[in-house]
Amino acid sequence: MERFAVVGAGSGGKAVSVDLTLQGKRVRLFEFPEFAANITGMTQSRRLTAVGVVQGTVVLDRVTTDLGEALDGAEVVMEKNLTGEGLAKFREERLNERAASVQGDADRGVTRLSEIADLDERQQVEAFGILVRGSEDYRPGEMAFDGMAADQGALDRTARDAAIRAVLRPDQAEAFDAYQAERRAKAERDMSRLGLTLPDNWDLLEGDAF
């Protein structure tokens, strides 16, 4: 079942929430704390009634003033009902969350690379920048990280892998290749036990595989 987060609990946000729920979607409705009066009595019951073009009474998945809670697991975020300061605040918070996620993933990646290939300090700084720019959530010109210019372009997977390899010495590259081969073989065995085939786009540098 597709999961939606609706941002803003004004009349428009409530109507959208009811409409989506009636379509069989799981919906979490978020309201900014300063406008919590809009969801009085709803945070516990999660019941919402709409009248007008959209009509009906539904029970939402969650009604909250915690943005992180509303967005957790959401596949689609509905923000079009926000305008002005509310929209600007929402976008800023979303950008900050994405930046924190990008930094956290890059930090973990550098730590893991250092464990595998014993990176020196310069290599760690370079690898961090490469992993940041290779993240799907990286937004050039919008996110700032220590030691990086904000306007550095994003890297696709091929460019990211080539840049990482360029940072490594030959002995380090050999250690990294051996680790990659080991992890791929394990992933193939795990998938085979489930009767599945490892995807062609399996990526060592993403997710739990690394």
Q: Would you kindly provide a written description of the structure presented here, covering whatever features stand out?
A:
The chain has 210 residues and is of the alpha/beta class. It has 2 domains: 3-82, NAD(P)-binding Rossmann-like Domain (Rossmann fold, 3-Layer(aba) Sandwich), CATH 3.40.50; 102-209, no CATH class. It is 49% helix and 11% strand. The longest helix is centred in the middle third of the chain and has 34 residues, at 84-117. The mean pLDDT is 86.
Topology:
Blueprint: E1 3-7, H1 11-22, E2 26-30, H2 42-45, E3 47-50, E4 56-59, E5 62-64, H3 67-71, E6 76-78, H4 84-117, H5 121-133, H6 157-167, H7 170-193
Parallel strand pairs: 1-2, 1-6, 2-5
Antiparallel strand pairs: 3-4
